[in-house]
């Protein structure tokens, strides 16, 4: 078949590309992370001093910054975990796809709660009120620090602009370890041998996060008080082994150079989801060895083109959620560019060095 044959021919060029472009991107990301982390630490110390219920998870461990997620070399997310979710019931009944609400446990008085000022009259812990409180704290901390950091106030999200080079979104979150949401109860897909049972146990033990951010669909009424389910750590655990991470790194480098278009039609989370879907299509570890990297890369690229044309990319754990949000014109431009890249890879493997 055409794709496997051409995929195999890509492998030597992919090795050189990864050694040059991907390595250069990784170095740029690390420089950005260090600069962002240095600026954030002073601000977050002040936030934690004023609000002890917020715990910054920003820490360097084995050369990686835990609590900082990379969206692109200049865009990051910082997760701020919150203390003590135990007094609330986690309600995941499908009312708000991709989100859940936290309701004060029966018998608990609102006035006695640690989070009293964030609880609605109906007894729900409001993600919207939590963001508003964080916005106030961060704004005060930025004014006090005066270290080249500015608050970006274009919506209800808490965003910072650091030295006019980097954008960081600060996200309040609860860590939900050892539990698995009902919305994702269908996973893993039956009759597919990937991931193996032990891996599934590890991923579900990792759990997920409940994060305060604008929802998958607009925000109004109770939906604005709901918490979005995020599976970043679970996704990273699934990418372990074989050439999965290398495939993602290659796609991110390709995206930054050719698909970082106006409207952000190809965000990093779409690439992650496509690789996880590709893992189900090719469940054997023998299909993720270095020699098969070209085939897997082309498979994901063709998936990406289809998603852009259909204007839909399902979330890996929550397939009812569409990860593609860009306007139609941006998606059409991205689909044309992705097809050009895929065609170049298929017809001229040696040309990869020019990408």
TrEMBL record:
SMART domains: Mab-21
Lineage, top ranks: Eukaryota, Metazoa, Ecdysozoa, Arthropoda, Crustacea
UniProt similarity note: Belongs to the mab-21 family.
InterPro entries: Mab-21-like_nuc_Trfase, Mab-21_HhH/H2TH-like, MAB21L/cGLR
Domain Mab-21-like HhH/H2TH-like: 244-339
Name of protein: Nucleotidyltransferase MAB21L1
Domain of life according to the entry: Eukaryota
Gene3D superfamilies (UniProt xref): 1.10.1410.40, 3.30.460.90
Domain Mab-21-like nucleotidyltransferase: 64-241
Any Pfam family: Mab-21
Gene this chain is encoded by: LOC108667627
